[in-house]
Each structure stands twice: as C-alpha cells, then as structure tokens.
Design brief:
The chain has a single domain, classed as Lipocalin (Beta Barrel), CATH 2.40.128. The protein is built from four helices and nine strands; from the N terminus they run H-H-E-E-H-H-E-E-E-E-E-E-E. The protein starts with 7 loop residues before the first helix and ends with a strand. The relative contact order is 0.27.
Length: 154
Amino acid sequence: MRSSFLPIRSLLLSTLVIAAITIGCKGSDPAAAADLSGNYKVTAYTASANNQTIDYIQLFAGLGSKCFQDLIISLKADGNATSNSPASCNSGGAPVDDFNGAKWSVNGSTLTFKEAGQPDNNWTFTQSGSKLMLNQTATVNGVSATYKMELTKQ
C-alpha cells in the first residue's frame, strides 16, 4: 500500500519534525511554554487531499510498524524538544528524527518547531484538557493537503 501524499520515509520524518517544531515559545512568555511542555503520544494523524483522507497510524500499523504507538515526544519547558526514539521507528533503514537540537516555540495559536538545517515547521494548535490538536496545510509534490495531528499528554 502506498500513500499518494508522501513516501513512508518522508512521512515519518515529517511527522516527527512537525511535532517537534509545532510546539514552542520563541519570543513568547515562558509561562506559555510551561502550558504545553510535557510528554505526548501521537494519538491521531491524518492527511486529507483531493477528497481522500489517509489515517497514517492505521497505515503504518497495517504495514507492521508500531512507531506511532511507541513514540513519545517531549516538549521541555526550556524550549527543547526530544523523543524517546523507539526502535520501531528505526526499521526499514529509514530512522525517524530524534529531535536532537530541536527547539519549539509558541506565538499566539501557532506552534513552531525549529531544527538546524530544516525549514520551520508551523502548526496551528488548540488545546482541550490533555489533548493538543495540531493543524497544518502544506503542499507536497504539488498536492495541497491538510494534516491533522492529535497529541495526548502523558
């Protein structure tokens, strides 16, 4: 099964970079960073384009990967972002990003992840209880898609 939006390797890398860049405090009140800081599991991740929606967690599970189920993203109060780099995300010779050196910041309702040598990864976010919902529209290979990710605080 092949996604029409992104190759699997690019998807994993994009997911991690997006999650790491989306939450941040650049130029904002440090108290705002504390509101989003913590450890998160990816509990939903979809992409919609051309009247089709892909559930990436189901797609990867169907391919035998437990990467999303095992992945924990940590947003540190000091603005650093890391992950637990589970072995399930390193299969197939395409390891996912472990966020070493990644920074996150928040400006209004935008969560930004910054990683050296990578473009900023901006997400619009809302928060409800332990849920952090991220939304982003991006064009990949000429196709505009809306990405939605739900992170659940652990």
